[in-house]
């Protein structure tokens, strides 16, 4: 009887361990890299790190959700950083991929709470990690942004000029869920 119980415990433990590996995936996100970059003079310098997340079909959204959690303590110890933190973990409303482009729709929380993103260096530390994280996927060649479905609001907030021509007069339809 003891042997039967021991076998059952071993079987249950192996199912739990091996079952988890089928339910997770590894993704790449990009963080600001302070290595060989004194005072972060190159604001757009990033380096990828790997993270393990629950398996999903919405990989682009999951990758961004992981990115906007910010750098872990272990990553910070490697001189990596992020404009993102636990406070920003819910800023991605949705991500749509259409015709080689990713359409990232942000929560309007960013306008009130991420003012540093609108500085010249801040724009790089905000946009570059998102673009690099999404462009690792073969289906993404360009990345466009909107706040609450309005691209004009994002590009005005960022002070990077007008909406890209590809958005045809700041058309927000591709940002809708």
Describe this entry's structure for a reader:
The protein is an alpha+beta fold and 177 residues long. The chain has one domain. Helices cover 36% and strands 23% of the residues. A three-stranded antiparallel beta sheet has the order 2-1-3.
In short:
The protein has helices at residues 2-22, 59-67, 73-77, 109-113, 120-135, 151-158, and strands spanning 24-33, 46-54, 80-81, 92-98, 101-106, 142-147. The chain has 177 residues and is of the alpha+beta class.
SSE map:
Elements (H helix, E strand, L loop, with lengths): L1 H21 L1 E10 L12 E9 L4 H9 L5 H5 L2 E2 L10 E7 L2 E6 L2 H5 L6 H16 L6 E6 L3 H8 L19
Parallel strand pairs: 5-6
Antiparallel strand pairs: 1-2, 1-3, 4-5
Helix pairs in contact: 2-5
Q: Main attributes?
A:
177 residues; 3-stranded antiparallel beta sheet; 6 helices; alpha+beta
According to DSSP, the number of beta strands is 6
Largest sheet: 3 strands, antiparallel
Query: Segments where pLDDT lies below 50 for 5+ residues?
Result: 6-20
Radius of gyration: 20 Å
* Shape call: globular
Mean pLDDT over all positions: 88
Number of domains: 1
């Amino acid at each position: 009887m003891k042997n039967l119980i021991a076998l059952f415990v071993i079987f249950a433990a192996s199912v739990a361990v091996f079952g988890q590996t089928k339910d997770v995936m590894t993704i790449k996100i990009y963080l600001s890299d302070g290595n060989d970059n004194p005072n972060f003079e190159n604001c757009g310098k990033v380096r990828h790190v790997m993270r393990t997340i629950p398996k999903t079909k919405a990989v682009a959204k999951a990758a961004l959700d992981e990115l906007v959690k910010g750098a872990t303590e272990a990553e910070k110890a490697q001189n990596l950083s992020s404009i993102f933190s636990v406070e920003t973990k819910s800023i991605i409303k949705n991500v749509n991929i259409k015709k080689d482009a990713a359409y990232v729709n942000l929560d309007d929380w960013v306008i009130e709470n991420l003012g540093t993103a609108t500085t010249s260096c801040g724009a790089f530390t905000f946009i570059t990690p998102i673009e690099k994280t999404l462009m690792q996927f073969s289906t993404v060649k360009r990345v466009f942004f909107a706040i609450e479905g309005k691209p004009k609001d994002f590009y005005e907030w960022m002070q990077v000029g007008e909406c890209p021509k590809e958005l045809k007069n700041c058309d927000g339809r591709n940002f809708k869920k």
